[in-house]
Amino acid sequence: MKKYYLLISLISTFTIFSQVGINTTNPTATLHVFGSTTPGSSGGTVNLINENFSSYTVTQNHTIDSDCTGNATQGWVTGTGNANVNCTSCTGTWLYISSDALSCGLNSTAIMNFSTAPTTTSISISFAYRYNNFGAAPDSFRAYLYNDTTSSQVGANFFNLTTDANTTYSGTATVVPGNSYSLRFEYQGNYDYGASVDNVLVTETAIASPGSYSFRLEDGTQGDGKVLTSDADGNGYWQTPTGGGSGTDSQTLSLVGSTLSISNGNSVTLPSGSGSNTYTNGLTLTGSTVRLGGTLTQGTTLNLDTNDLTFRSSTSAAFPGEMIIQGTDRKIMDTRFDDNYIHFGDEAFLDSDDGTTFNDTGSTTFTKDFVAGFSNSNSGGSAVAIGSIEYFIDGTNELFFEGSGFNPMSDETSSFGNTLGKTNRRWGAVYATNGVITTSDMNLKTNVQPLNYGLKELLKLNTITYNWKNYKLGKTTIPLEKQEKKIGFSAQQLLEILPEVVQTHSWVPVNENGDYKEVKNEHLGVNYSDIIPVTVKAIQEQQAQIEELKKEIEELKLLIKEYKK
After folding, report:
1. Given this model, what pLDDT does residue 377 score?
2. Beta-bridge mates of residue 255
3. Which fold does the domain 451-565 belong to in CATH?
4. CA-CA to 505 of 20 to 30 Å: which in 80, 169, 231, 466?
5. How far apart are CA 400 and CA 391, in angstroms?
6. What is the pTM of this model?
């Protein structure tokens, strides 16, 4: 009889409250199941960090000084970095830092938190990195594991660099299951290149577990990936999702007019309008394609920051595309990608000597490799190249510098070729330790004849002292009383007595093909060294006269002696 009373009491309770609670004394529905679910795990590799920085928000401790500019003010950032810090294994985008600004000092630590706490005692860590050190201490770059639960570093540094490195790291670390961890990269730099990090992977090998659940329905229709559903009468059972076992339906998007439709779903009517885009300031719309090219409509600045702007040509064509700056009536600059130089001026190519060889004064062979050309005509051209031998070539006028001196490119035998100055472009003074050396090898001479000038011609010469007219130093006229008194000859008189020592004409280039013409000098010039042989001949003649007089004196002495007897 008691059992019936209990059953009646339960039915009365259910009827009154109409709610049943499992693991709860306060049900809020007709059937309320309360509990926590821990899905089972099959074990295997679990990613705690798997980051290639394609979409990443940087977390860091960052301090800088007031001299830092550009990216240095941001500390660690993501992007493509720059050539001085990019690691060899860096791809896409990566994490990098730079203090490449004068007197820029910074201390920044990038913090990469684990996505979940480890469940085992051992983890594997790998990443690519580069450190490029420009100066000395305190520049450094280190990586280490940090326990955020205990606020302490785990073990030793993975590395602590003060010299350049461009490689990868791979290792393991011991951890406490359930604790929170982060991987940290600390950089200190003062006007330094910087560092980069990419492809960070931290994993653990998890142990398989069965899991625990709050609800279980075994009706013969259960299966992996199925969902709980019901029929029209509310009878529940397990069913495979419409799109397959993954629980994701295959959907098709279609756009007809302004209606966007989803298969097996809803449709959306897009707003209509006649809006259009305008492309200006160097952009042109051709059909449905936007192309680079057109007229700039405003002042435009490209801020390169720490990134390079590179123009290159990879074609093997005989005449690759070039970068050209066009002036009003001629090209100002034109690249020569195939010959690895840049040309300034007209269309003329660089001198044909490019790629040929020459010998310096020490008989060492060098190859002319032009890096820049300059010209203002359609032939010849100028070239400048800097290297172990510096040389300048302008058509037929060629000079080069080497450690032992400043020389013409070729040996010059003419008195008019490769001159140092001109009759109307004079040097004020030439200083030398050991004087001026003139080649006088008989093997180089022809038509050799005895000198006819001598004492007679020297006796005709008037020696003079004088001052220069219009004696200036820059824009300053030197007063007569401040000038040095000069001594010498009259070029006009020398022209009458010793015409060979006076230069009346010069040979000047007509073009850059090696053609010259003779022109009359505006002012006469004297080759004073050519007077020396005349002076020597005069001394010889005078000495002969002296010897003859000495002989006559001796004879007179003998006659006098005989007379006295």
Report:
1. 57
2. 260
3. Arc Repressor Mutant, subunit A (1.10.10)
4. 466
5. 4
6. 0.40
